[in-house]
Write a structure and sequence with these properties.
Radius of gyration: 22 Å
Strand order of the largest sheet: 6-13-12-7-8-9-10
Number of strands: 13
Distance between the termini: 66 Å
Structural class: alpha/beta
Shape: globular
Oligomer: single chain
Order of helices and strands: HEHEHEHEHEHEEHEHEHEEEE
Number of helices: 9
Low-confidence stretches: 21-31
């Protein structure tokens, strides 16, 4: 009798474990299939907030950006962090988080335009509450250090905009400005550029993710680590030693980022540095070497990153990529 009771308990335990496993698998599948939320397109009369999440902005340099937004029929709110000075940062972590949270929850603000990059956004990301934002998403715009926000929002299944920032508007190319306008106002966004001889030809489709390579590398192992599976990864960087590029690419490789990647887009690798004893390869050659064991298409020298021609990319959006000998196309669906 005792043996029978023990047998029933054992079978019940196995049964409950199987039920739990089925639940976990189904929940994971539902999570994986959750559609990406695209924030509403801007309309004339909408308001954009300009604020700082990282490096301070104490100069009187925002007129070109404000004039640009006004020319598009938009209103502008300047955040409390503009002008704050806490050594390198635009105020304390608490001040930057409070300013961002206020604009995040304000229903009258339809987009948040981060004034500049540098360093510091990672210091406030865990102080933010995205509860209201998830219900009513709005465009978060910027690049460089803003990659932290892009990656975190991607985990929340909300698209964001990798694009020029207010301090870069004055020197931005017309193509950069027009791509930002189209992305914000929901117009068709597509690019065709001359192909580089080092490209790996091919076609791919998938969700585009990524941003600044150094930031993506720094987020590995955190709750904002980028998910590369089935995606098209975009990377760019500035002012890095070449061996740092190798180290970061090797780390992405070792964490499995390239195992199920659909394609790789390499933007500007700007102002790279080298040691007295040269590394022996430039940034693109390093990327080429680290990824040589994979078959996914690779597009080099895409016009996005730390230079004047910084085209907008809607991270989290589905895209199609065609890399041919003569030219390459990136089309947002």
């Amino acid at each position: 009798m005792r043996n029978n009771r023990f047998s029933f308990k054992k079978r019940d335990a196995v049964f409950y474990k199987l039920l739990m496993l089925i639940f976990v698998l189904q929940f994971s599948t539902i999570q994986a299939q959750t559609p990406m939320k695209i924030p509403p397109s801007l309309q004339k009369g909408d308001t954009v907030a300009i604020l700082a999440t990282a490096r301070k902005n104490i100069d009187n340099n925002l007129k070109p950006a404000i004039d640009l937004l006004h020319s598009w029929g938009l209103e502008v709110v300047i955040g409390k962090t503009i002008g704050l000075d806490d050594n390198q940062l635009a105020g304390t972590d608490a001040q930057r988080a409070e300013d961002f949270q206020h604009q995040l929850d304000n229903p009258n603000i339809k987009a948040i335009w981060c004034v500049r990059g540098g360093y510091g956004t990672v210091r406030i990301i865990d102080l933010l509450d995205f509860t209201q934002f998830k219900q009513n998403p709005k465009w978060i715009v910027g690049f460089s250090d803003v990659t932290i926000l892009h990656s975190y929002l991607n985990k929340l299944k909300i698209a964001s905009l990798h694009a020029a920032m207010p301090v870069t508007v004055a020197k931005a190319t017309p193509e950069t400005i027009e791509s930002l306008r189209k992305a914000l106002f929901g117009e068709s966004l597509k690019y065709e550029i001359p192909s580089d001889a080092t490209n790996r030809l091919g076609n791919a489709k998938g969700e585009i993710v990524g941003g600044n390579l150094s930031i993506l590398y720094s987020l590995m192992g955190s709750n904002a680590q980028i998910d590369c599976k089935g995606k098209i990864l975009f990377i760019e960087d500035i002012d890095e030693y070449l061996y740092h590029i190798d180290r970061m690419m090797m780390s992405l490789k070792r964490c499995g980022c390239f195992d199920n990647l659909n394609a790789l887009i390499v933007g500007g690798m700007t102002k790279m540095r080298d040691n007295d004893i040269p590394w022996g390869k430039n940034a693109n050659q390093i990327i080429q070497e680290v990824t040589k064991g994979y078959s996914f298409p690779i597009l080099y020298n895409f016009p996005a990153g730390h230079f004047h021609d910084n085209r907008a990319l809607i991270l989290g959006k589905q895209v199609s990529l065609e890399i041919n000998k003569a030219s390459s196309k990136l089309i947002f669906e």
